[in-house]
Write a structure and sequence with these properties.
This protein is mainly β. It has a domain at 2-62. It is built from no helices and 8 strands. The strands form 3 sheets. A 3-stranded antiparallel beta sheet has the order 4-1-6, with no helix packed on it. A hairpin with a 4-residue loop joins β7 and β8 (79-82). The two termini are 24 Å apart.
């Protein structure tokens, strides 16, 4: 889930294609008072262009250290890969 707090975060939504690639299906800007919800198999990418400050709340079904199977698509090689598991998250307080 993503909820907008300040600024605008452009999100692009995708679906897998039959040839194991992706196809963009929609673009949604998340800003103050708007949000998106995803299921585990949903695909999205976000891009915050420019210098505008953006603050959004991202909530995942598990903590980042437990999300070992997050995938990303590399359009240059037309292949899927797993993100490295995030470890050693420190509390900023």
């Amino acid at each position: 889930m993503i909820v907008g707090l300040h600024g605008t975060e452009p999100n692009r939504l995708f679906e897998r294609t039959e040839d194991n690639g992706i196809r963009e299906t929609q673009r949604i800007d998340v800003s103050h008072g708007t949000g998106l919800a995803f299921m585990p198999d949903d695909l999205h990418a976000l891009d915050v262009p420019g210098v505008e400050k953006v603050l959004n709340f991202h909530m995942y079904g598990l903590g980042l250290p437990q999300l070992a199977e997050r995938e990303y698509y590399n359009p240059r090689t037309h292949s899927w890969h797993f993100f490295p598991t995030i470890k050693n998250i420190e509390d900023a307080r």
